[in-house]
Design brief:
Layout: E1 3-5, H1 11-16, E2 34-38, H2 40-66, H3 80-88, E3 97-102, E4 111-116, H4 123-136, H5 148-161, H6 169-172, E5 177-182, H7 187-203, E6 206-211, E7 216-218, E8 221-224, E9 227-229, E10 231-234, H8 238-244, H9 246-257, E11 262-264, H10 269-273, H11 277-284, E12 294-295, E13 304-308, E14 318-321, E15 324-328, E16 338-342, E17 347-349, E18 352-360, E19 364-372, E20 381-383, E21 385-387
Parallel strand pairs: 2-21, 5-6, 5-10, 10-11
Antiparallel strand pairs: 1-2, 3-4, 3-18, 7-8, 8-9, 12-16, 13-14, 13-16, 14-15, 17-18, 18-19, 19-20
Length: 389
């Protein structure tokens, strides 16, 4: 793979646009000063892969619901009703997610690692910063697979139109409001949520932002300062709500049942989010070129990756060959169910590994990369890209 050195975005500029997590604990820059060179046909292949896989995830989720396979995915029982309700009614529109891929460069096949469908991060970096890198280096900003901002704006409109055509948004929109929430004290999540607030506002919605602990929930709906909000966007994983805030999980289910609010991303994205669905995908589409063999027990005769069904930032992930651990990360998810996924090496350059992330908002809409060790964790760096033959 090829990298193109660029002048990095200066920290005072990053601070000025609200991006404060630009420096890691060891003092190194979080945003790389190089761009991954991606050919146009490679960018198209990432786009097509995301679109094809989304349809496959929908089929796999239907299989889970029809056959009551929630337990296999590690999904808490107190969210099953919310998942079913949100799945059956189109008003619960999936706003956005991010597919993580190995391969896709230098002739290596694209392979799905997982789908971050509920609370995907690196949105600000992918939508705004990698575009700014091109602009500040006097490059043509269009030389990038990056329609994330525009695609999100269109997908917000689809919350109202519920179909491909968003031109009638203004005809149908009747002042419904979206309250956006993140947890206080986590700057990255707050800025990501505020970016989404801004995009929804630009799409034509009335919006507001509030930390989660300032939001009021009741059977009658979701409120802030006495104002009722028809939509609530939360950058809090559904499984965390189920496990740590059981009363809230029950209340949100009741709010949905009473049709008092619509929650984004919908509860059914927890099916997509669970890495347990990778096993079901492989059952439904064995040997599909985009999939890696995945089971709920160790693979025989193959190097494999052991992952918790709900885990973040590479925690509790291990790579195992011939029953020997080649690499592993510790973390808080050791009591999770685990899946076992065939190992495939990421794109690499000078002993650093690059994982492609493709955002999806109604369709594939943007590409970004993270780089780090064999298992990407919370010390990984963000790397932008440029389409260059």
């Amino acid at each position: 793979m090829r990298l193109l050195k660029v002048n990095k975005l200066q920290k005072d500029y990053l601070e000025s646009i609200g991006f404060s997590w630009h420096t890691d604990e060891d003092g190194s820059d979080y945003i790389s000063d190089a761009l991954v060179c991606v050919k146009e046909n490679e960018a198209n292949a990432y786009y097509e892969a995301a679109n094809e896989l989304y349809d496959m995830f929908v089929a796999a989720a239907q299989n889970v619901i029809d056959n009551d396979r929630f337990d296999e995915l590690g999904i808490p029982f107190n969210l099953v009703d919310a998942i079913k309700m949100s799945w059956e009614n189109d008003v619960h529109w999936h706003l956005y997610g991010r597919f993580d891929f190995a391969g896709g460069l230098d002739g290596k096949p694209i392979k799905l690692l997982e789908f971050n469908a509920d609370t995907p991060t690196s949105l600000f970096e992918s939508a705004i910063l990698q575009w700014a890198i091109l602009k500040q280096n006097n490059m043509d900003e269009s030389y990038q697979f990056n329609n994330i901002y525009e695609s999100l704006m269109e997908n917000f409109k689809r919350l109202i139109t519920l179909n491909d055509d968003t031109s009638l948004f203004e005809n149908y929109y009747q002042g419904w409001k979206i309250l956006f929430s993140s947890i206080a004290g986590i700057k990255e999540e707050e800025i990501t949520t505020k970016l989404l607030t801004h995009i929804a506002n630009e799409a034509g919605f009335e919006t507001n932002f509030s930390y989660v602990d300032e939001v009021e929930f009741s059977d009658e709906g979701i409120f802030k300062d006495g104002i009722n909000y028809e939509y609530w966007f939360k950058l809090i994983p559904w499984e965390d709500i189920a496990i740590e805030e059981g009363d809230l999980a029950m209340l949100l289910t009741q709010i949905m049942r009473n049709q008092k609010a619509i929650i984004l991303n919908p509860a059914y994205t927890l099916i997509f989010q669970s890495k347990g669905i990778m096993k079901i995908l492989y059952e439904l589409y064995p040997n599909h070129p985009l999939l890696l063999e995945t089971k709920d027990q160790p693979l025989v005769g193959k190097t494999y990756v052991k992952k918790p069904v709900f885990g973040r930032e590479g925690a509790n992930v291990s790579i195992i060959k011939d029953e020997q651990i080649l690499n592993e990360n510790e973390g808080p998810y050791e009591n999770n169910k685990f899946i076992y996924q065939e190992y495939v090496e990421l794109n690499s350059h000078e002993n650093e590994f690059y994982q492609a992330g493709v955002f999806f908002a109604y369709e594939g809409c943007g590409l970004g990369f993270r780089k780090g060790g064999m298992i990407l964790d919370n010390s990984s760096k963000f790397v932008g890209h440029i389409i260059k033959e």
